[in-house]
């Protein structure tokens, strides 16, 4: 079954970014629950902010699951990523992600590697960067397995990484790994920029897709831009996708309205049988 999810950012430096709810996790959980979401996705400032007992209590009180936890604060806040030229910084980036996997995993959730993948540069060749990324994904994917969850790897648009911009290149990377426990995160905003055809890309990536960022072409809530969702939803059903469609969208026109627009679009395109 395809379930609904909404993002909550707890990272002040990410202000202006594509997250529906901000700062107040208890209030976000109440709103998500009232609107009928199945789950939340948290973007924390540090792994330790996803504290097992208090987050579990909030989830239970509101009848929600934790779908995933993002690691982007490792980049936004600490300027770490997996392809930096300095070995100690690559180790610190991997450690930040490993600790996030532990915090999320205790709550049954997957961890996302998006901006923490980094990029190749004058100092690190494309080949070396892809090697660093593959090595980290291999180790971290196996680490996630200890918690019984997959790790999510997110291809990003060309303005955010020069490593993998399409699902196809993501699949190629995944198939080269030493682990089979990494799945793709298909973010419809990035895909709208990079993919010739979003539905075809979803069908081609098929079983490799583990999570979806449900958002429109302009990064506003689904239904506020020009993505044609009917073929996208049909493709997800066709591949047997049974994860979350998670609203990683701008809080436009405000958080509450963005969440409401998202759940309306979710119910329209993913009606329960
Ligand atoms: C970044 O653009 C993004 O889509 C996030 O999910 C990555 O951390
Ligand atoms: Mn995303």
Structure report:
- This protein is of the alpha/beta class and 273 residues long.
- The protein has 10 helices and 9 strands.
- The chain has helices spanning 25-35, 52-62, 73-76, 87-106, 126-145, 167-175, 188-194, 198-205, 229-238, 255-269, and strands at residues 3-9, 21-22, 39-43, 65-70, 110-113, 151-153, 182-187, 209-213, 244-247.
- Strands 1-3-4-5-6-7-8-9 form an 8-stranded parallel beta barrel, surrounded by 6 helices.
- α2 (52-62) links the parallel β3 (39-43) and β4 (65-70).
- α4 (87-106) runs parallel beside α5 (126-145) and α8 (198-205) runs parallel beside α9.
- The protein binds L-Erythrulose (LER) and manganese (II) ion (MN).
- The site of L-Erythrulose has 11 residues, from loops.
